[in-house]
Amino acid sequence: MDVQREIDTRGLNCPLPILKAKKALAEMLSGELLRVVATDPGSLRDFQAFARQTGNELVEQETAGAEFIHILRRR
Fold first, then answer.
1. Which positions ≥6 away from 4 have C-beta within 8 Å?
2. What positions does the domain UPF0033 occupy (predicted)?
3. pLDDT tens across 13-38, in order?
4. Active-site residue identified among 12, 14, 37, 59
5. Sign, CA torsion 51/35/7/46
6. I want to staple 35 with a disulfide (CB 3.0 to 4.6 A). Which of 6, 25, 52, 72 is the partner?
């Protein structure tokens, strides 16, 4: 998957991973992919709700050990 931007939100709890993703997406072009690496287990649910509310596409979510990886496509 060709990701244009990645942000590291490890160690941050809600709502900071969402806020950082929102800021990053605002600086990206439509259709570009953003990867967010988080350690907050609540981020799985949070990013699903964020995608529904903002119209950005949640392309993929993955759990890798204690990390949660979210890939979003900018609307």
1. 28, 32, 33, 34
2. 7-31
3. 999 999 999 999 999 999 999 999 99
4. 14
5. positive
6. 6
Active site residue 14: yes
Tokens of 45: 């649910």
HEC assignment per residue over 3-17: CCEEEEECCCCCCHH
Token representation of residue 17: 């991973």
Which residue(s) pair with 65 in the sheet? Answer: none
